[in-house]
Amino acid sequence: MRLFFVKDFLDLVFPRNCLMCGRSLYDSEQNLCIVCKGTLPVTSYHLRPIDNDLCDKVKGLSTVGMVMAFLKFTKGGSSQKLLHQLKYRNKPQLGQELGLMYGKILNENGFSRFWDLIVPVPLHPLKQSRRGYNQSEKFGLGLSEALSVKFELSLVRGKFTETQTQKSRLERMYNVDDVFQIAPYSSITSKSILLVDDVMTTGATLSACANVLLANGAKNVDLVTIAAGG
């Protein structure tokens, strides 16, 4: 009885609300209510992982295999709202929940057997210190749990880069040139790797990371992001 009282008190002082619609969450709900989960713009990239518009974006930039995204990104849409919560509203647990959700879809479609390792695109230490976490890392941890695939921080970011938001495809490529390195403790040699990030626009950052992994002994690299759009 005492535990129920404490829980009711905490819910009153620190209410748990859906990060999309704002309504109160049930105990079984984490960050999103079941209604909002049902309206997410989930893509079907996992049905055509080697022949889709995301593959076209990285063509000529890197020799990766499959390219997929969980959600379709649209300005002002639910995917952008979720990314804003994840990146700027101190909601690291949201990234892990999204990873679990997409990992379940991938697992149900037989993808877990394709990878030996899940690796996130790293943030610069200064940016990660300011934010408190790497949102791509949280997404990757959720995928790792759902797929039962090992997670490793195999990449490090060597220099601070300007924001990619307003840059062209060519400018983005130059902006991430020679930015990423292999972590000294990495175990990527001869491994099939799933490289994960939060959002894919031109594919320049993911391609740069994939090229470093492949140049340092990875067997092959596939790409997955939380969202992707134009």
UniProtKB/TrEMBL annotation:
Source species, domain of life: Bacteria
Family: Belongs to the ComF/GntX family.
Domain Phosphoribosyltransferase intervals: 142-228
Protein name: ComF family protein
The organism of origin for this protein: Algoriphagus winogradskyi
